[in-house]
């Protein structure tokens, strides 16, 4: 029986393209990836954009905090491949109608963006998507705010710590899943493990039938899964 664990590209395909770039996302979709994981912040004028860090210094030719830049200012800078920092709307236009699962991380753990949950939820609801988006965050309060706005969506808590009782915690917080840095058995909600780049660890997680692995190298993960 084929392994049914899904494979998500962590920030797209960072082993081949700049992380969180439209080129990387498009490549992954064209090569039959199961899912994409990506990160969303708000600019100063409340435009949702896709980037991991709170600052643009590491991944662009510019400097500054996303929260201090308008969208127009942000677009003056480029990723390593010459692309501008993508907006969430551009990403949603790319994936609309595509058979790809989405894990949208609200980057609210270090800086809280006012109204990010409402703005992002509204934008996603207006997009024709095949699979429901999983909204994740390290900030539990952000997930609670999102749930209060729209209880019909799927939410998952991100953590690098081990949870005492992940199933009970997920039920209490209305979570569809937990996204764990360290694998531990979870029985009644979806378990997605990040960031998995070693083949032996991929094999172990596929054997455990986790819901998904999140990896920087989805093509390697596809090969490992196909060989099992």
UniProtKB/TrEMBL annotation:
GO MF terms, alphabetically ordered: phosphoric diester hydrolase activity
A GO biological-process term: lipid metabolic process
UniProt cross-references to SUPFAM superfamilies, sorted A to Z: PLC-like phosphodiesterases (SSF51695)
UniProt superkingdom: Bacteria
GP-PDE domain boundaries: 5-225
InterPro entries per UniProt: GP_PDE_dom, PLC-like_Pdiesterase_TIM-brl
Protein name (Swiss-Prot/TrEMBL): Glycerophosphodiester phosphodiesterase
Coiled coil (residue ranges): none
């Amino acid at each position: 029986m084929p392994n049914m664990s899904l494979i998500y590209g962590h920030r797209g395909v960072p082993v081949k393209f700049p992380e969180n770039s439209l080129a990387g996302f498009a490549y992954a979709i064209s090569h039959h990836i199961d899912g994409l994981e990506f990160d969303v912040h708000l600019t100063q004028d409340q435009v949702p954009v896709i980037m991991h860090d709170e600052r643009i210094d590491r991944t662009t030719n510019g400097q500054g905090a996303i929260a201090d830049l308008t969208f127009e200012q942000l677009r003056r800078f480029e990723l390593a491949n010459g692309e501008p920092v993508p907006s969430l709307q551009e990403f949603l236009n790319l994936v609309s109608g595509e058979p790809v699962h989405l894990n949208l991380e609200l980057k609210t753990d270090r800086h809280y963006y006012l109204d990010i949950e409402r703005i992002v939820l509204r934008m996603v609801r207006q997009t024709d998507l095949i699979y429901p988006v999983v909204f994740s965050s390290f900030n539990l309060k952000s997930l609670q705010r999102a749930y209060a706005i729209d209880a019909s969506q799927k939410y998952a808590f991100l953590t690098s710590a081990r949870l005492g009782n992940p199933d009970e915690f997920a039920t209490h917080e209305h979570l569809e899943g937990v996204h764990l840095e360290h694998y531990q058995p979870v029985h009644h909600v979806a378990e997605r493990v990040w960031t998995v780049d070693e083949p032996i660890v991929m094999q172990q997680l596929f054997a455990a039938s986790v819901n998904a692995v999140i990896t920087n190298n989805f093509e390697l993960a596809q090969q490992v899964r196909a060989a099992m």
